[in-house]
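Objective 1b: paired records.
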Amino acid sequence: MAKKFIFNLQKYLDYKESIVNGKAADLLKSKKLLDKENNKLEKLFDEKEIATLDYKKNKPSRILDLAIMSSYVNQISKNIDDQKIVLDEKEKDFENEKISLQKDFKEKKAIDMLKEKKLLKHKNYIKKNTEKKLDDLYMSRAKRNTQ
């Protein structure tokens, strides 16, 4: 009976696979957060554009109205700058998670390739062993027939 193939690093391979799956899920969450922050930024730009068009269209006559509109546009500009900072941080987080996932995936792939090589070696060993047993069997039958 042929001995069963046992890969010594199978537990580590399973661990790496679970790590890769977890990081892939984290990357997806990070991508969703990045898209959400990007949408917030787009909304702020739209809001600023609408406020600017309103300002130009209505041409406030009183100084108080002018100050309020100007303050509102300035606040939106500040919010845009803050959102750009948040978006940059989210992009960095996303890129770091992506790099980490790629690294772990490469390690998992290397172990998978090692497993495949070991399996191929095992199959060749079993094949040679089987051929040797068959040769021995034929040889013993040939000896019996000649005697």
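Objective 1b, second protein:
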Amino acid sequence: MDTKDLIRLGVPLGEPIRLAHEFIQNFIAQGKDGALLEAEIFNIVTNPSAFFADELWLADRRRARDGQRGRGAPSR
């Protein structure tokens, strides 16, 4: 899935696209079914508050953020 696909799904340009690419990498790295990826991204775009309320999803985002933001931790 590339940037054009993400825009088609409603992901705004800029930081949201970067986060979506990061989400895709994590999704695949966790061994989740790639056939579900488009639906998962669409659900995040159409109902983001549901994902902010999901502690597992938030924990994954925090780990990714901390690993990516140069706090001395290696990237995942």
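The chain has one domain: 3-68. Residues 3-68 form one domain.
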